[in-house]
Write the structure tokens for this entry.
Amino acid sequence: MTGAEVSTKRGRPRDASFDERVLDATRGLLTELGFDATTVQAIAERSGVHTSAIYRRWPSRVAIIERAVFPGLESLQVAATGDLEGDVRRFVRAFHAALSDPAVRAALPGLLRSYEADGRDGSPETWLEVSARPQFLDIVRAAPAGSVDESLDIDDVFDTVLGALLARVIVPTVIARRRPLERLVELALRMLGPGAADVRRVVRPRRVAP
């Protein structure tokens, strides 16, 4: 028997459906029962995969949940075409759709609590396993010359968009307002526009009738 033959026979072949069974079970539990009920034991029972096998693949339930829900952001692909308005509009809509997935909405509050309890450094956005920030930066950089304020920190605009989108999917009072997503698109474009960094709004006190 040759060395090649020995190497092909050595070890048990990995079940190709293993990961997907666990991740499907995780998404189902999140959607139906919520973050707290999505334990490793519950995932094992629903997926039919033993807990010891799950722990050999993932170090914690948080790691499982991250992998289960963030492919929605990983698949967010909005190619930069040079049409700033159109690209930003498509990006905001795609990002909102990814965050609005029921499993993602169920997972986000619990994940953010877990990250904070773990003492992770950085902003909540940097905790997420997959970030849409690079795509947003590519879109802005592809915009025609003169269409974006050169003194603007693009990361600040992305942070504003991210915060607004997170609020739209996990903050009840914001969800209840049901504001059109186009408002956020318009806000992002205004922030990016030439001279946006120098804009100063003067708020006048409202006159109260005697």
User: Anything to note?
Assistant: The CA atoms of residues 46 and 84 lie 45 Å apart. The radius of gyration is 22 Å. The first helix runs from residue 3 to 9.
